[in-house]
Amino acid sequence: MTVVFDGIASGLLLFLISVGLSVTLGLMNFVNLAHGSFAMLGGYVCVVLLNRYGVPFLAALPVVTLASALAGVVLERTLYRRLYGASHLDQVLFSIGLVFMSISIAHFFFGAQQQPLQLPPMLSGQFNLPGVDVGVYRLFLIVVGVTIAIALQWMIAGTRFGARLRASVDNPRTARGLGIDVDRVFVLTFALGSGLAGLGGALGVEMLGLDPEFPVKYIVYFLIVVAVGGSGNIKGSLYASLIIGICDVAGKYYIPQVGAFVIYAVMVVTLIFRPQGLFGRTAAK
Q1: Is the distance from CB of 10 to CB of 137 less than 8 angstroms?
Q2: Strand partners for 129
Q3: Closest CA to 98 of 36, 45, 21, 14
Q4: Cα(238)–Cα(225) distance, integer angstroms
């Protein structure tokens, strides 16, 4: 039960970081392999706020989200928007270039070492329930992850903005003819994805660590979530993250000698039987 609980917490953390990639890749049809760089930015902003300026952890999280979202807006307006109509290969090469640039910038300002992060006492420690040891911080991650998953699913499927987003992606010309500001929808969506990545990066410092190689080390995990869950599908990303998180923690606990082989096996088996992912791509309605 403890392994399952830790796996759920790990999976929801993975969901928080990767769901932004699912949105930009599945709903905007843009392959942004630099998504992990926004998560790394959120982690470094959080560390600086806590360690240098003494900002409380919970108060730093909204600032982290806003900073990452603003970075996403700036890059979307200046760089990303020029490649919306480009081939996926061009998008991949461009975003990989951004990854290596972000790694160099992080090396320059923070060095190669892992960044320390001290959690507040209210989120530290654990308590025991029958059959399971519950870490307070992991329980906090579960609550935050579930809340954001519900909010995102409602926003995409049940609001006017979600309908405009799906219409803008599937037929931007018709959407513009109906009076939808497609450019504004895209920049807001990119800001949402970047902000969630930054929030997940900040929340993940304690579990995943933080160093300049972060975007390279974990981008495969984010891509696996998108592939297994179905690009653009919030529910699929949530289920995929939970499956991968539990399998990853259980595999490392029971058979540590195989490393991350378990999650790759899960991905391969899933895609053999469900090539479009667990739920496929979210389509416009």
Answers
A1: no
A2: 132
A3: 36
A4: 8
Phi, psi of 135 (to 5 degrees): -80, 130
Cα angle 235, 241, 247 (rounded to 5 degrees) comes to 135
Digit-coded pLDDT (tens) for 195-236: 999 999 999 998 888 999 999 988 888 888 888 877 667 788
CA 142/CA 84 separation, integer angstroms: 34
Query: What pLDDT is attached to residue 280?
Result: 60
d(CA 258, CA 210): 24
Decide: helix, strand or coil at residue 26. Answer: helix
- Helix axis angle, 234-254 relative to 2-22, nearest 10°? 140
State how far the alpha carbon of 239 is from the alpha carbons of 8, 225, 251, in Å. 10, 9, 18
Whole-angstrom distance, CA of residue 109 vs CA of residue 100: 15
Per-residue model confidence (pLDDT) at position 231 = 67
Whole-number pLDDT of residue 50? 93
Residues 6+ apart with CB under 8 A from 152: 19, 234
Axis crossing angle, helix 136-158 with helix 2-22, rounded to the nearest 10: 40
The pTM (predicted TM-score) of the whole model is 0.87
Could you give the CA distance from residue 189 to residue 6 in angstroms, rounded to a whole number? 31
